[in-house]
Amino acid sequence: MLPILLLLIPVLSPALAWIPVEDWESGNVTASVGDSGQCVCHVYVPDTTFPADRVQHMQQVSKDLILEMEIQMDKMVSYEGKLEIYLEELIGLTDRVAMLQSSSNKYIKLDFELLRNELREFDTLVSQLRDSINSSSPLFDSLYTEIHNMTLIVNQLETYDKSNLDMIRIEFAKLQKKLEECQKDQEFFKPDIGNCNHTGIMNISKPMVVQMNAHLSADYQYGGWGKDSKPVQGYESMFFYGAYRNSHVYDFYFYSDYKKLILRSAFKHHSLSYGWQGTGNNYIVHRNTVYYQNNSPFSMTKLNLTSSEYDHKLIPAASQKYSYRYADNQNLDFAADENGLWVMYASEESMGNIVLAKLDEESFSIAGVWNTSAFKQLAGNAFMACGVMYATRPVDLNTEEIFYSLDTKTREEKQLNIRFQKFQEKYTNLDYNPTEQKLYMYNNGYYVSYNVRFNSE
Predict the structure, then answer these.
(1) Do residues 152 and 120 touch, judged by C-beta distance below 8 A?
(2) Were both Cys, which of 206, 335, 408, 448 would link to 384 (CB 3.0–4.6 Å)?
């Protein structure tokens, strides 16, 4: 039996674990065989004492550093979140300043001091953030530069606004002067409603441009607007409007009063039924009924807004060949005045001259006819006032002229030269309203009106 060799290793202190391996191999460990044949190892520990207290101190310092690092990391995370919020708010403030810079002339009173306070707050927040981190960086420098530049812009805008206030005051003074002139003009054109004891139109006021059409589009160049020429009870203040991209007529809007017209808030929108669509844009509203031209069949048509009933009547002599010069398909032109309801057209027999017809409202038929010497295709439009037909024509791009009149009582024709201004070159609807003694024009997409002054000699 082979002898069992036992390696007896005495219990050593923990310091032995710190003895380098090379020391074990350099004679500090010896081995021998004991009396009973066992193997005995001798380990010689160096005399130098290991600094265990320093190791413990290092471990504590390491723990403290780790804890401090965690605290600083938490701070950095917090600062990062705050910085993101500040940057978002700063971007919003930048947009506000940019908006004011690009459209400062639209503001009369701007709260510049509020902007300054917000910029001061940003400056303070960035300073606190930099002091907390106790460092500087290009980011902070960029923030400071941005805040400084925005402050300069705000100051410049305020200076611009203050200097512009003088200009605004001047413009208001001009506007006040114009309003005073307009008031004088209104007094000069003070209407005498219902009175036809005069010798005809003396002059036309300057155009009163209300606004662009309710569609807010320059494409709607065809159409008309105005008031009921003989309103029924409860609709005395009603306005009507219809506009289209071509000469076709297919719907109308109705507004309870002038304010609703301006606000584009219609109380009724009426679309013409299939087969009853119109054309020509020379329609009017009379006694809560719309009178317009229908091309299928070619006839004068009316729509009762109270009952929603349609009716139409043919005019055998009327031709579809002749229209006014500003638009196509204006073959039948309806008009109303103090004497009632009228329709104007041209025929082959009249060789294109305007034919005036008085309508019987009850039977919706022609009650009388007058031939004129006004060639329709040269005329811009025509209207009736106190039983007299007036025809217009262009003088230049900005001027229109009433050049012709026919008195239905005397059958007297006159060549006239009553000029008035246009807001735009072309118009598709011009009608006189006897309840106000005003002309309503649909002028290339804009609502325009005129006061009419009669010669009361």
Answers:
(1) no
(2) 335
First to last CA, the chain: 161
Nearest residue to 451 via CA among 426, 433, 427, 424: 433
Q: Give the residues across from 356 on adjacent strands.
A: 344, 370
Q: Identify the bridge partners of residue 421 per DSSP, sorted by sequence position.
A: 399
Say if residues 444 and 424 touch (Cβ distance below 8 Å). Answer: yes
Give residue 411's Cα distance to chain centre: 52
Q: Which run of H or E residues covers position 144?
A: helix 138-188
Pick the closest to residue 292 from 313, 278, 306, 272 (CA basis). 278
The reply to whether CATH 2.115.10 applies to domain 195-454 is: yes
CA distance 364 to 21: 127
Copy the structure tokens of residue 323: 């229209």
Please give the C-alpha separations between residue 31 and each of 27, 35, 46, 227, 412, in angstroms, as whole numbers: 10, 13, 18, 128, 153
Cβ proximity of 199 and 227 under 8 Å: no
Report the candidate in 337, 358, 356, 333 with the shortest Cα–Cα distance to residue 433.
337
Is 81:110 a contact under the CB 8 Å cutoff? Answer: no
What is 380-409 written as a DSSP string?
SEEEEETTEEEEEEEEETTEEEEEEEEETT
Hey, which bits of 160-316 come out as E strands?
201-204, 208-212, 222-227, 239-244, 248-249, 251-255, 268-271, 278-285, 289-295, 298-304, 309-313
Buried b or exposed e, range 433-453, using 16+ CB within 10 angstroms: bbbbbbbbbbbbbbbbbbbbb
Number of alpha helices (DSSP H) and beta strands (DSSP E) in the chain: 5, 25
Mean pLDDT within 314-324: 95
Q: What is the tens place of the pLDDT at every residue in 370-392?
A: 999 999 999 999 999 999 999 99
Quote the CA–CA distance of 254 and 183 in Å, as a whole number.
28
Domain extent listing, the chain: 7-43, 71-166, 195-454
What percentage of the chain has pLDDT greater than the value 70? 59
Six token digits for residue 337: 């005045």
Angle, alpha carbons 300-302-303 (nearest 5°): 155
Tokens of 152: 């300069």
More confident residue, 278 or 39: 278
Given a contact cutoff of 8 angstroms between Cβ atoms, the answer to whether 223 and 245 are in contact is no
Q: CA 14, CA 154: separation in Å to the nearest integer?
A: 74
Task: List the Cα angle 266/268/269 in 5-degree steps.
Answer: 95
Average pLDDT over residues 420-433: 93
